[in-house]
Amino acid sequence: MPCSSSASRRTCLAASIAAVLALSVEHVSAASSTFLVANCNDDGIGSLRKQVSLAGDGDIVDLSHLGTGNEGCAASVITLSTGAIVIGQNSLKIIGPVSRISIQTDASALSDRIFKHTGTGTLDLEQMDITGGIYYGKGGVYARGGCIYSAGSVTLVSASVSYCLVRTSGKASGGGVFATGDLTFDHSRISGNLANTGSWSRGYGGGAYVKGDFSARYSTIAGNAATAQGGALQTWGKVHIASSTISGNNAEDEGGLSLRRTPGPLSSATITNSTISGNSARNVVGGIRADTQLSVYGSTIAFNTAGAGQDASTYLAPGLAAAYATSLQNTLISYNTFGATEFDFSSRNSVVSGSNNLIRVSTGPVPADTSTACPLLGPLRDNGGPTLTHALASGSPAIDQGVATSGVNYDQRGSLFTRVSGTKADIGAYEVQQDDVLMSTSFEGCG
């Protein structure tokens, strides 16, 4: 029926509302329901905000069909102009389309984050780009989470969090994400976020601040900043990072990873098949500061810098500074500097175990078979796989000098790149494949 007369328009509107409501809830089991988002409006019937308010604990809010052009959001963008979407459920899953949807704030509003999760369960965000959130702590109150705040845990799957800001004149944490519980990244990216207090003192976790446990696989944390500690991350629980790249982050101290611990039993951190590169600190520790027990397998830590005049008599190396028992296996640590001085690894604990590593300059103990040769690393770039890596140039002493880590079949790049392609594994996150054409001169560092 054409909607020409006023009566017809009322009939059409009623039919449209009924159709949206009919689609709003799809029972998938006795325990959970799926709420379909029908448009890209900020609010109102069928909007993301409305469907979140209707959903119950453990339900799913589904945006996966958006972006076809038939629901008023052909550009696949939801712009929030009325504040953050508040998620009161303990646990909720929000799923975007495979082609991804962008959820952003209205640039003219400059007033709020994207999601505020007040529940203590898990907020699961999949297949979406979350961008442009700005959260100010007025009057110097503690400000947390520029784009995402959670009183519980957060999981990101095939998602990104970018260009978010948390700011206050007091303490600010989590430029992109603040998680009171755990934070999990899976094939995701967090980039260009800032924790800013307006001074070099109290901004923590430019990319994310995690009070619980943190894990990442096939993910990238790049270009984030904090005005105190942890340009990429500051964590306080157990950490597991695999097949991921942390690069180009900066802070006053600990430009890359700030791995801290809560009082009590030591937490632990494990880094496998990963690259920590090009992070910088205005003062100390450009790459990783580990105030936890640390294990690093088949990884590359390179080109991180610190501005202050730390030297080999201190334990705060620009590359990796370890404070407790540390295990290093098949790991390459090189080209980390303050000024023109290379200083790659330091430990203030006498227990440093492992084998088959290449560490150029260190202070404190290292495994007995550690090489100090120039590794001939290529630049950080796309060498295949979902994350950036440093390739090994022809003649690199890291080639076929490593040992395979139990259960690790591939290098950082994933299933197309076997972990042992020659007579033995290569040292570092990158494995030269037998059919590779190796660079002969295009490498960085070592003069």
How would you explain this protein's 3D organization?
This protein has 2 helices and 49 strands. The chain is mainly beta. It has a 13-stranded mixed sheet with strand order 1-2-3-6-9-14-19-24-28-32-36-40-45. It has an 11-stranded parallel sheet with strand order 4-7-10-15-20-25-29-33-37-41-46, with no helix packed on it.
Q: Could you outline the blueprint of secondary structure elements for this entry?
A:
Elements: H1 6-24, E1 25-27, E2 33-36, H2 48-54, E3 60-62, E4 77-80, E5 85-87, E6 92-95, E7 101-105, E8 115-117, E9 122-126, E10 128-131, E11 134-137, E12 143-144, E13 148-150, E14 153-157, E15 160-162, E16 165-168, E17 172-173, E18 177-179, E19 183-186, E20 189-191, E21 194-196, E22 203-204, E23 208-210, E24 214-217, E25 220-222, E26 225-229, E27 233-235, E28 239-242, E29 245-247, E30 250-253, E31 257-259, E32 268-272, E33 275-277, E34 280-281, E35 288-290, E36 293-297, E37 300-302, E38 305-306, E39 320-322, E40 326-329, E41 332-334, E42 337-338, E43 341-342, E44 345-347, E45 352-355, E46 358-359, E47 362-363, E48 377-381, E49 389-392
Parallel strand pairs: 2-3, 3-6, 4-7, 5-8, 6-9, 7-10, 8-13, 9-14, 10-15, 11-16, 12-17, 13-18, 14-19, 15-20, 16-21, 17-22, 18-23, 19-24, 20-25, 21-26, 23-27, 24-28, 25-29, 26-30, 27-31, 28-32, 29-33, 30-34, 31-35, 32-36, 33-37, 34-38, 35-39, 36-40, 37-41, 39-44, 40-45, 41-46, 44-47
Antiparallel strand pairs: 1-2, 42-43, 48-49
